[in-house]
Design goal:
single chain; alpha/beta; Rossmann fold; six-stranded parallel beta sheet; 16 strands; globular
Amino acid sequence: MNRPAIHALPTAINDAERLASRLGVPLHPIDVHFFPDGELRVTVGPPSATAIVYAPLDRPNDKLLILLFAAEAFRREGARRLVLTAPYLCYMRQDAAFHRGEAINQKVIGSLLAGSFDRMITVDAHLHRTKNIEDVFPGIESDDLSAMPAIADVLRGSGISHETVVTGPDEESRPWVRDLAARLDLKHAVGHKSRRDDKSVEIGFDNSGLFKGRPALLVDDIVSSGGTLLACTKALLGAGAIAVDVVVTHALFTSEMIRSFRDAGVRSIRSTTSVPHATNAIALDGILADALRKELGP
């Protein structure tokens, strides 16, 4: 009962298994049964004083209910501390009401999870006007980890060209573009983005001459519809980049989109394991394990 354990959603067992192995703790799947009418029955594994729940929150709606039901079961079984490890955190985009009558999703989800868990760990949360992850989860510990150390390690091992320019589509991408470029000792630049709708954007670069005759490494936190990635690839190739490679923290696009990216001139696309995806090439278990070691005690 005293030994911490990782409890994982069924869709994330493989990534949770690597994390549990790195930490040297047991792994237990959370069993989920769907009744014909869509209702859920959730059953958790053996109780532990500290339960670490591993749950990437892509396609989140059922998962959020599963987490609430699991938290109730853990508490009733005697867990004194619940830690939610959600490498991808859902519903962060809507942090304000942009039109009359809109719900502020971020506020709702933050309060909901903070009411059930004692600590939240995520990676590259998609925050805009909210400055700190602590503001999303009132009253509990929260950590927003950077994927850049893990990404830099993989790129270093792949022999990335010293001529590469690290780039992002807009000012929001500047912090991680600058961080990654510094870790790899490369030049960097960010574009300016004009969005028409969810699937239509235009990207421009003030210093487009920087890309002429060089490979470009396009870095973004989320790729969903793919519109920004396609527009940025077009702008980079138009500026004379000889190749465009893409690294994304959260790959939310469909696998069918990979062909569209290649047709547009993307040479390679790699994502982290924040959500299970065909493009996964960068494991996050190292940075997650570092953040979780305090839960294991002395």
